[in-house]
Design a protein that fits this description.
The chain has 13 helices and twelve strands. The chain is of the alpha/beta class. It has a six-stranded parallel β-sheet with strand order 2-1-3-4-5-6. Helix 5 runs parallel beside helix 7, helix 8 crosses helix 11 and helix 10 packs across helix 12.
Length: 358
């Protein structure tokens, strides 16, 4: 078969993640971790696409201090010459990599947009370089329609080169399960993205006299006065499922869309995990949400940075068991219908094929 036909029907796609995923891939294969952050890579073989992962040489060495920063940025420049057996490179590395890849004939790039819109809006000095890089990519994949529209407006990328592929969750790993024996119900919040609004959550919870669990990074809690019955901790995959299982309500409090830190897709992992676990969910409104939740059906959606509205929604879930059950059941059904990692692979596959065939 001619090489051009091979590229058209069986492209060789290499995933380059922001951080190493090799250990995770091994854990996924053993059923010990979810495949959510592999973004469908392990399912593309079922669709006739040869997909593999690659770790940049510069960041394999484990540098420390200033050298680590240099390696972190420099990897985007050296990557194109490391990908010898690749038709399409798929990565979140969108600042320099697409530009560098133009010097390597035959290599196509597809950039996954986690938070490039926010980076562009926040960093005036980096805008020209980021604009050039994204215009050099063969395609950009956004997590929602609003993110796509904003990127086109901000950067001037050709609309036909910007696609929407919803994020996903490992629905075989995150499944509904009964709460741990002897556990008291609680409100759960999960996430370390800087767009999390734990200050509003704390204000909403303070009058309720309800137990709450926060799985958060300390930097997201700076200056936040937490209610007395709130515990902050971190959880690995197995414990994370138990936290979801015991939650009477999962809350994803977010800043407004124009907040300049975090990402425009912040909160999606926690939202999808809670939905997959069949837990009742309360979320702050953001432009990207319509691609994932149906207000009043799969989640209660409240205005951002509004403690009173957030408190009222939490109370509704805690006091109305029928509502809580209905939200959880509909959320799980929505994940099974369209938001699993296999669905993500099916959305990405035609993008990879089209880019490889150019």
């Amino acid at each position: 078969m001619p090489h051009t036909a091979f590229k058209r029907y069986a492209p060789r796609v290499t995933y380059i993640y922001a951080n190493s995923r090799r250990r995770l891939a091994e854990e996924v294969a053993r059923g010990e971790a979810p495949d959510t952050t592999l973004h469908g890579q392990n399912h593309l073989g079922e669709l006739g696409i040869d997909a593999r992962m690659h770790e940049p040489l510069l960041t394999r060495r484990g540098w420390t201090g200033p050298l680590n920063r240099l390696a972190w940025d420099g990897r985007e420049l050296t990557l194109p010459w490391e990908l010898r057996d690749t038709d399409v490179a798929f990565s979140v590395l969108g600042r320099l990599f697409p530009l560098a890849a133009r010097a390597r004939p035959g290599l196509k790039t597809v950039i996954l947009n986690f938070g490039l819109n926010t980076i562009y809006r926040r960093s005036r000095h980096a805008r020209p370089l980021l604009r050039s890089a994204l215009r050099s990519a063969d395609a950009v994949v956004c997590l929602g329609a609003s993110q796509r529209e904003e990127l086109i407006e901000l950067v001037g990328v050709e609309p036909e080169d910007v696609h929407v592929s919803q994020g996903s969750v490992d629905a075989a790993y995150f499944v509904p399960q009964p709460p741990p024996d002897g556990s008291d119900p609680y409100v759960l919040a999960v996430g370390k993205d800087l767009a999390r609004d734990y200050a509003t959550l704390a204000e909403a919870l303070r009058p309720l006299d309800v137990r709450s669990e926060l799985l958060a990074h300390p930097r997201t809690l700076i200056g936040v006065e937490l209610p007395p019955r709130t515990r902050v901790s971190e959880a690995y995959w197995g414990a994370l499922r138990s936290f979801y299982a015991g939650a009477a309500c999962v809350v994803v409090p977010q800043r407004r869309d124009n907040f300049l830190y975090g990402t425009e897709g912040g909160g999606l992992s926690a939202i999808l995990e809670a939905m997959a676990m069949g837990r009742p969910l309360v979320v702050s409104e953001r432009a990207i949400l319509p691609d994932y939740v149906r207000p009043g059906e799969t989640a209660l959606v409240v205005p951002p940075e509004d403690p009173a509205a957030l408190r009222e929604a939490i109370e509704r879930v805690l006091l109305d068991s029928s509502l809580a059950e209905s939200l959880g059941r509909a959320a799980r059904a929505s994940v099974e219908f369209n938001l699993t990692t296999r669905h993500e692979a099916r959305r990405l596959a035609p993008i990879f094929r089209a880019v490889a065939a150019r």
